[in-house]
Structure formats: C-alpha cells, structure tokens
Amino acid sequence: MGLKIFCAVFILAFMCHAVKGASILALFSSLSYSDHLVYRGYVSRLAQRGHNVVVMTPYPGHFQFPEVDRIVELDVGQDSSPYWDEFKLLMTNTDDYYPRLKAIDEFSVKLAIAQLKSKPMTALLINPTISFDLVITEADVPLLYAVAEKYKAPHIAITTSSGKIHQYESKGNPIHPILYPDVNSLSYGNLGHWDRISEVYRQYKSRGEYYNNYLPLCELAAKKLFGLKRSLLQVEHDIDLLFVASNPALIGNRPSAPAVVYVDRMHITPGLSLPQELFNLLESSTKGVVYFSLGAVQESEQLAVPLLQTLADSFGELPFTVLWKIANTTMITKPANVITHSWFPQQQVLAHPNVKALITNGGSRSLEEAVFYGVPIIGLPLVKSRKVFINEITKHGAGEILDPYNLDKETVIATINAVASNEKYKNAMVKVKSTVVNPLISGPDDAVWWTEYLLRNREARQLRSPAVGISSFRYYLLDIACYLLIAISLALCLSYYMIRAVARSVRRRFWLYRGLDGSGKFKAL
C-alpha cells in the first residue's frame, strides 16, 4: 500500500513538472560575446525552472549541468565566422555618425540571413511537426521577429543595450531626444542649444535609418525566407514583452509601459573563484589594484601608439598594481607594476577587495559589474555614445571621465590616484549600488517571472501603451490643432466679412444721411 501511494505521488509530481515546463525557441544572432553572457544567463534560468529551450547561437557549449539537460543548442558559429572580421571592424570604428549605424544594420541583416539558412536552422524551420509555446528573439534584429510569426507563438524580444528608439516605440513608451536617451545618444543632461539641435537631428536620422532602410530590408528577407504575410512593423508592434537588460535608474529614467521589463544583472554570478596565480597576485597587492579593460570587442592594441605609451607611462608612476587587458605590448614599454594578459575573469577580479578602480570604455556589462561589486570607475569612452551612460554613474560621485582624444600623463595619474585612493568615490559607488540594485527596480528574477506570466496567459498585449501604432501627427494632437486652426481661421474670416458688411452698411447710411440734410458735398446742386 505504501509503495502504491509513493508511486502515485511520484507520478503526480512528474505530471505537474511536465505541465509546468514549456517548449521555448530562443534566437540570438549577435557576434558580441558579452551579449551572449546575458542571453545564457536568461536561458539558464529558464532551464532551471524546468522549461525546455532550443537556442540558436554562434557561441555554443557554455551551459553547465544541470540546466544543460534541458537546452538544445543550434550551432550557427561556422556560418557566422566569415562575418567576424567585418563585425570587429564595425564595432571598433569609433565614428558615431549615420554611415556607421547604417553599415551595422545592413551587416546584421546579412548575418541573420546566413544564420537562418544554416543547416541546423533549416532542419528546424522545415519540420512541420514542431511547435513552440514561446519564441524569444534578439530585439536588435527585426528579421528574427518573423520566426515568432511563423510559429504563431507568444513573443518576447530582449535587448542587451539600453534600448533603441524603435524598441521603445513598439511598446508605446515616449521618446524624446533631450529627456530620454537611447543607446545611440551622443549627449544627455544639461545641454546647450547646439547640443539640443544635434540630438534632435541625430534622433531624426536614427529613426529614418530604421524605418526607411533597416526594417524594409528585414521585411524583404522575411518574405523570402518565411513567406511573411503582413508587415514586419505590425509584427514588431505585436511583440508581447520587451526585456531591456539594463537598470532603468542608470540609463536615463523614462516612463515605461508594463510591457517593457528591465532585467539587468542577468550575467552576474557572485562567488566565482579566481585562478590561483591571479588570486595570489591580488592578495599580495596590498596597495591596491587598478583594472583596465576596453571590453570584449574593443581591444587596447587598436589604440594609437602614442596614446598607449601615455597610458603605460602613467601606469608606471602609480603606487598600484595595474591589470591591463591587452594581448600585444610590443609597441610600448611596459612598466614593472603592469600585468598584461589577453583576458582576465573580470567579475572575479572586480569582486576582490583589493581592486580599487576600473578603467572602462563604458560597455553595459562592465558598468553593471562595477556597480554590483562596488568598484569606482574611470571612464575612457572611445565611442562617444558610451559617455552618456558612464556619466549616469559618475554624476553621483562614483568615478571620473577621461577624454581619450585629449589625454596627457599628468591628468591620467591625478585622476587614477584620486579615484583609487579617495574613499569618497568608493562610498559613492556603494551608495549607488544600494539605491539601484534592488529587485523592486529590476533584476534577473523579473525575466523569469514575466516569461512565465506570458506562458500562463498566452499574450501580454494588454500591457502595452495605447500609443502603439499611432502616428506622430495624432500622438502630438496635431490633427486637433489643425481642426482648431481651421475653425479659428473660419471664425476670423466670417468675423472679417461680417464686420466689413456692417461697416459698409453703416457707411452707406452715413453718406445717405448727409445727402438728405443738404450739408453734403454737392449742396449747390
């Protein structure tokens, strides 16, 4: 009897677990390794919750036990590799202007087409028996939206950036070139007249590039690959939820519809151990350590040699040990206190108490990690748009910003010494962390909660703003303004003609009266 009860409970538990698990397709096209840290963190959490996930990725083989048992990776790395050099060139180009944006968009279309035509994806897409309970796509590649349309499944789009104009517009969030920065903003805050004009023009060009070039190219490809029956813009508007992998308090606060969910810290894993040799080095650096990294794609070797030498000479005069993520140092003279390597485990390094400051290009993941581990930052924004988001941290006193195009040795030394030695920067960063790192504001758990909300309800379009799909003409009530202008014009015209008619009548009566009493001009007649 006891065995029967045990078997019944076991079967019931298994059935409940099976009902709970969902079949999910996730499509991630980006060649940025740091982007996939976020995607893997998200997929791992879904697998840990019992969901089965099929993932298109150019970086397979990084999932760990036990979640790996519920994840099937469709490896498109071989099909993506011919595009690596072009991707690297585009990402390391520090020009923030329209031609670079257009080139990146057109590259993204080429890359996504190659990935969707790969053998693993073709085998999946041509199989008529496969269906999914949910499709997750990279929000920066609209071509992938068409896959959710193909499977007629609920749809989540996730961006690892601070969000682009069209992504916020698709959920009805307000956009404004001055008040609400997007990932391509060049200036933000207390702007002068010229900067305000520049930002208005930049947003105009950015929107035009997306709606007049990038989206039509993606739609054309979607019709050829999937036979898309409706416009890709409509598909984008019907995305149920948009996940933004950033903290809203650190990317310029904006009013958001419930369909926009902020899910930062997805890739952060506290408690990871350091390699023994590196651990010993950090432990022995009692005066402190400064860590310098330009990110996963932007490499120090690509900087001009005079700039590299200025940095090296400055590091040599610091009392700290400097960890510098750079593979090739043959072009400079490396000081004795500088340790170089092509890669460092950044999270583990920043988690060590002897690390006093992070010198960063301002990548999203680096800023997240600096805030989470309470390390003050020194911004070195090679790409101008990164300065906007570095400043969202430094304005609280948690760091400083250097101008990489106007750099001198004395300034570098003074800035690093101040940030690494003065406790006010550390205290300010700790305060920033306590203020913004809060599950009520954003966090990785929100990604899982809202995903399962969508799985339970099958749609979340009721959470988007009613502004979705409304033209700017109607959104800013310009149609009402036109009606009022027409009404006022008609009223003024009518008033004019009425007054003129009355004036003529009065004048006629006046002249007639003067003629009758004999005092007029022609009295003698």
UniProtKB/TrEMBL annotation:
TM regions (residue ranges): 475-499
Keywords: Glycosyltransferase, Membrane, Signal, Transferase, Transmembrane, Transmembrane helix
Compartments (UniProt record): Membrane
Catalyzed reactions per annotation: glucuronate acceptor + UDP-alpha-D-glucuronate = acceptor beta-D-glucuronoside + UDP + H(+)
GO cellular component: membrane
Record CDD domains: GT1_Gtf-like
Family label: Belongs to the UDP-glycosyltransferase family.
Protein's name according to its UniProt entry: UDP-glucuronosyltransferase
Taxonomic lineage of the native organism: Eukaryota, Metazoa, Ecdysozoa, Arthropoda, Hexapoda
